[in-house]
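[job 0412] stage=fold_complex status=start
inputs:
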Amino acid sequence: MDDRFDCIIVGGGIAGLSAALTLAKADKSFLLIERGEFAGAKNVSGGVLWGQDLAKLVPNYWEEDQAGWERFITHRRLSFMDDQSSLSIDFKSVHLANPPYTGVSVLRSKFDNWLAGKVEEAIAAGTKSMESFIATNILVEEILMEGDTAVGIRAGEEEFHANSIILAEGVNNLLTRQVGLQDKYVPADHMLTGVKEILRFDQKILEDRFQLQGMSGMSNEFVGFATHGVEGGGFLYTNRDTISIGLVLGLKDLREKKKKPYDILEHFKAHPVIADMIRGGESVEYSAHVVSSGDARVIPAKLYKDGVLVCGEAANLLLNAGKAIQGMDYAMRSGILAAETVIIASEKNDFSEQVLCGYQKALDDSYIMKDIRNFQDAVHLLHDPVMYSKVPNLLCDFGRKFFTISNEPSKKASQLMKESIREHSSLWEMAVLGFKGSRAL
Amino acid sequence: MSTDSKTPSLRSSLSEKLGRVNYRNQSRSEIKPHILVDTSICNSGCPHKCTTYVCPANCYTLDEVGKVHFQVEDCIECGTCMYACDQGAVAWSYPDPEIGRGVTWNFG
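[job 0412] stage=fold_complex status=done
writing structure:
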């Protein structure tokens, strides 16, 4: 008897669970291995799962009382900060308040565990309920190779074999490196460190403070003083009775500027604009995780080889082009696409590169790679000191002048803007930025 | 507010927050470290000793004579040191679920 699985999935995060759910629905046998005590136990994210793929994977998830998500986002804000002020683009609309929502805030320890429950349900509903498993508390140490083909995994003394392996191990992708799809050492250049704190509130206070109705929520991103001069940005998302607040900080820039992520986070929280939002919150968890910058240069050129596929953050799939930090939706879609490729391969009974390359093709044709390619200029722009330092300063300077009423004759906004630009930058620099920005975004 | 890395209040507030982290195998007297740091590399000509400030959990510290020390107990498995160290001093792996350290997030 052939005791090989159709697929072994390494990692029970969003990418791995989405792959598993897709395989379970197609009645394929698989083993999903998660090193944490449960799916989600090791996972950290900023906190918003954007887009509508979740609704495709778990139809009508919003009707479930005990679903794993926190709040749907109806209120979005992008804030530019200097040391005293913030000037924001703010959008709130009931248009965003109907399913399928544009984004839901999540806490991964709960969300991933809930999604794993959906996988278990799908396994039980199929004919492979004795052949498909989610195994937790097991660390995959090695991908077993026969020649250049991945044939299984080793965990401690145990070995398991499969026709295919989906690597969904997250950004610290040791196995992806082992099979040669990513360099052994990945330099800090295009990587960020995320630091985050969960602050707990009385739910009523949280809802009043952020003007939330029912399960609606707010997302706020920050550029400028938030990072204390370090490349990156900040975020604040509302959950049911907690707030996720944090920063993503360019690792190379942190190294060069000799800054401590924790200190910058405390500094951010002490900013008058932030302090007003988080006052009275009880710190219940501090966490950190590396995250890719979304620079295409850090995405492996090839995401497959004989018997193996790489998805989610293990493939460094992430994008922040100024609109939203998208990573979990990329994990979800790439996990689905990897599983769909495995399903095709199992129908053809061919798990070689010739078939698995279909995954990369599907990824290329999806919004993931289209957006990553299309918005590279925006990624580079956001990581330019002009954008995370000079622009927020001049915008706040302009805001201060524009919104201060002094009972003296006033200057027109265009004049005030010119003055602020001259003080913090130059008309030429802003003209170049405007030109680049209009093309990039 | 100062962000001087030596500010005692910031160091103690970080310790307090790490004290709330749910680490695994806390009752074990001996754990198998998942990160091995060759501090002889750090202490012989590393131009930045960056792990001592980029690590979000302060696992890398400098002593009074400027030598780097590492402890794995507070590690929250973020991966920062694996990328930040460009001197080849950090051998990074995931903790063993049974005999390693590492985290279980309550929120994540």
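[job 0412] summary: Residues 1-5 of chain B have pLDDT under 50 and may be disordered.
[job 0412] exit 0
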